[in-house]
Amino acid sequence: MPKITYTDAAGESRTVDAEVGATVMETAIKNDVPGIEAECGGACACATCHVYVDDAWREKVGDAAAMEQDMLDFAFDVRPSSRLSCQITVRDDLDGLVVTTPARQA
Fold first, then answer.
1. Is 105 part of any domain?
2. Which of the two ends of the chain, N or C, has the fewest CB atoms closer than 10 A to its terminal CB?
3. Residue 106 lies in a domain
């Protein structure tokens, strides 16, 4: 089972087990990870599951699709590493993925 580490804006981290096929957002919600609100439930219709993908993982995670890029326009403090966690599907090769939540969600 892949592990994902979520770090909040204050630097506190928690590592949780993730099911292959779930999203990074679903994994956060299931494990009560603070900082991910997921108001739309994973429909890519808001920007409240915004995360920063650690630089070491950006290539493996991949770039945001056009619809996700449009939604990121509504996110707080967007950076080149910004992604919506509802759009990152957990795979075996993402074991060890590290993401950081912004200081606040949009």
1. no
2. N
3. no
